[in-house]
Design a protein that fits this description.
Blueprint (H helix, E strand, L loop, with lengths): L1 E4 L5 E3 L2 E2 L2 H7 L3 H6 L2 E6 L5 H11 L3 H6 L3 H7 L5 E5 L2 E5 L2 E4 L13 H9 L6 H22 L4 H13 L3 H14 L4 H13 L14 H50 L4 E6 L4 E4 L1 H7 L10 H4 L19 E8 L8 E11 L5 E10 L1 H36 L8 H32 L7 E4 H19 L2 E6 L5 E4 L1 H17 L6 E8 L4 E8 L6 H4 L23 H11 L3 E7 L3 E9 L5
Parallel strand pairs: 14-16
Antiparallel strand pairs: 1-2, 1-4, 2-3, 4-5, 6-7, 8-9, 8-12, 10-11, 11-12, 13-15, 16-17, 17-19, 18-19
């Protein structure tokens, strides 16, 4: 079966212009005909699906790739495609001011003006002027004569073009005789001309393929099968083209996203480094490279080879077994002098693949040297100020106490009242200063614990008795329940009592008159002393629970106007419990009260 491209860019099958759905399907090949300059596409009997598939794949290739393979026919031959032949257009000058018909690698006839197209128009009934028909015949005979004289034969495409011309002629034998005359006139040998004309006359006439002539059932069946295959493969080619286009769009989208993420990581103020499971550096942005003292050349090297500072090697250690958690730590990097010392805050987390397997670890590096310096200046200032305030406050407190004892002389009732108020506020101010000093020592790591064996009964009862008078004056019931009598624990008693004092003071501030406060103590199954302080006060909202142990953070509305605080008591309590290797937490519900609980190990060492 032969397919060719008409002058109006339609695919003609065996010289016929198709219509309907068949035309729509077959004309999907038109862009490929034009792209590859195909004039004739010939499918031979015995063609296989593999050959058609190879051909369709080749149609989708770029022209340059096909040319680099030696042309489409060479490329088909390389794929063992033997039942498909392609004829392509080509142009050369054979006479002055005339375009000649020549053969390309596939032997396809061409010309300018295109004799093949002109014959097709004549065959399709679009040329009716006798003079124009005569001109077409003359030009066609000229091409045939020129080629026959040189080669003693003509190419299959040129022969097909001539047969198509004869098929539509009214006097076919007369046309063949005129061709014979033209060949002789051109100087072709008589015997060769007779043999050639005889062979053309004896071959099946193109009239047998005329759109008006009958077709055999076999040819119709073969043509139908080939058309169906072409339609199927054309559809497949379109699907492959759409799929390729979709993949290209997806690839571009992913590439754009990657470039955007790379740009963000590159310009991050914090350092970002990714370490693989083999300990090699997978990624490090410029900030991380600067902080770690490495370069882009160190990527894909083991961290311990690229990074010289042993402190930084902890980046790959001590990752939490909880893959959803992150690990934060501060790393101090010593320099040649105190001025070049740096402090890095690192936050590390495990990276998993979609199957849940660990593939590495990502670490964020933040240079907090300046923040640490500011914090130290603040702590030093706080320690200095509180220390300087403490000395005159002690002197004032002693003086007021001496006056109230009447050792310096009698005082009136109104004087006694005012001096009592002053003494009470001096004690509150002293406690505040003591808290600030304690906080400063805790943050500087200078507070020491003086642990000694002490009875749990004493630890609980003494603070409760201390606050009982204040609680009674507010109409609040305060009590304790000790479910572990005669138990001794090794702690710093003064610091644990300080914790209980802070918790009880807090409870009294937020409990209404008529409410209650209860201190409970018992030993847990895992040999821990668990102490809790619960109240029936105003409670704490959910959003404030996480901040309740923060420094200088005050939660809720106090219910007693004569009670005040700085918001550091709970922070101190937490640090003291930590120094005893214990833990502390809070439970609360707005309007229903609050419960603070801390635990201490009974076997704690000294």
């Amino acid at each position: 079966m032969a397919l060719s491209l008409s002058q109006d860019n339609k695919i003609i099958v065996e010289g016929e212009s198709l219509s309907g759905k068949s035309a729509e399907l077959i004309n999907t090949l038109t862009p490929y005909f034009k792209k590859l300059d195909i004039e004739n596409l010939i499918f031979s009997l015995g063609i296989t699906e593999e050959e058609i598939t190879s051909f369709v794949v080749m149609l989708a290739l770029e022209v340059d790739k096909i040319k680099s393979a030696g042309g489409i026919n060479s490329a088909l031959a390389d794929k063992s495609v033997t039942h498909i032949k392609v004829d392509q257009f080509s142009y050369i000058k054979v006479k002055k001011d005339h375009a000649g018909l020549v053969l390309t690698e596939g032997g396809a006839p061409s010309g300018k003006p295109d004799i093949k197209s002109r014959v097709n128009n004549y065959y399709a009934g679009r040329v009716t002027d006798p003079q124009e028909v005569q001109d077409i015949e003359k030009e066609l005979f000229g091409f045939i004569s020129s080629e026959f004289k040189d080669k003693k034969k003509i190419s299959a495409p040129l022969k097909s073009t001539f047969k198509k011309f004869v098929a539509y002629a009214k006097e076919k034998d007369a046309v063949i005789q005129r061709l014979k005359g033209a060949l002789l006139e051109y100087g072709c040998p008589g015997q060769d001309v007779d043999n050639f004309v005889g062979s053309i006359s004896s071959e099946p006439s193109a009239a047998g393929k005329s759109r008006k002539g009958p077709k055999t059932e076999v040819l119709i069946k073969e043509n139908a099968e080939l058309k169906a295959k072409l339609a199927e493969l054309s559809h497949k080619a379109e699907e492959d083209s759409r799929r390729a286009s979709h993949l290209q769009k997806q690839f571009k989208k992913i590439t754009d996203e990657k470039e955007k993420i790379d740009s963000i990581i590159h310009h991050m103020a914090d350092g970002l480094v990714v370490i693989g499971t083999d300990g090699k550096i997978m990624m490090a942005n410029p900030t991380a490279q600067s902080l770690l003292g490495i370069t882009s050349q160190d990527i894909n090297k083991p961290l311990k080879e690229a990074v010289r500072d042993e402190h930084l090697l902890t980046l790959t250690k001590n990752i939490s077994p909880d893959k959803d958690a992150s690990v934060e730590k501060d790393i101090e990097l010593l320099g040649p002098s105190e001025d070049t010392k740096r402090v890095l805050r690192t936050s590390s987390a495990v990276i998993e693949d979609p199957n849940g397997r660990t593939v590495g670890m990502v670490t964020i590096l933040n240079d907090i040297t300046r923040q640490k310096e500011v914090q130290k200046m603040k702590d030093d200032f706080l320690a200095s100020v509180t220390h300087e305030l403490r000395t005159p406050l002690i002197a004032i407190e002693k003086s007021v106490s001496l006056i109230l004892s009447k050792e310096a002389g009698e005082v009136s009732e109104s004087q006694n009242q005012f001096l009592t108020i002053a003494e009470r506020n001096l004690k509150r101010l002293t406690l505040l200063i003591n808290d600030l000093l304690d906080l400063s020592k805790l943050e500087a790591g200078k507070m020491s614990m003086k642990k000694e064996p002490v009875s749990v009964d004493k630890l609980i009862k003494d603070p409760v008795e201390t606050f009982k008078t204040w609680a009674d004056s507010k109409g609040i019931n305060i009590g304790y329940q000790i479910k572990c009598e005669n138990v001794v624990i090794n702690v710093d008693p003064n610091r644990i009592i300080q914790v209980l004092n802070n918790l009880l003071s807090n409870a009294l501030k937020f409990t209404l008159s008529g409410g209650s406060i209860l201190v409970e103590a018992h030993v847990t199954a895992d040999n821990f002393l668990e102490v809790s302080v619960s109240d029936t006060g105003v409670g704490v909202s959910k959003e404030n629970l996480d901040k309740i142990f923060d420094k200088f953070y005050q939660v809720g509305q106090k219910v007693h106007s004569d009670s005040s605080g700085t918001g550091i008591g709970l922070s101190i309590a937490r640090e003291i419990i930590k120094m005893h290797d214990g833990s502390i937490w809070v439970e609360s519900q707005e309007g229903k009260g609050t419960k603070f609980t801390f635990t201490l190990a009974l076997n704690s060492g000294g």
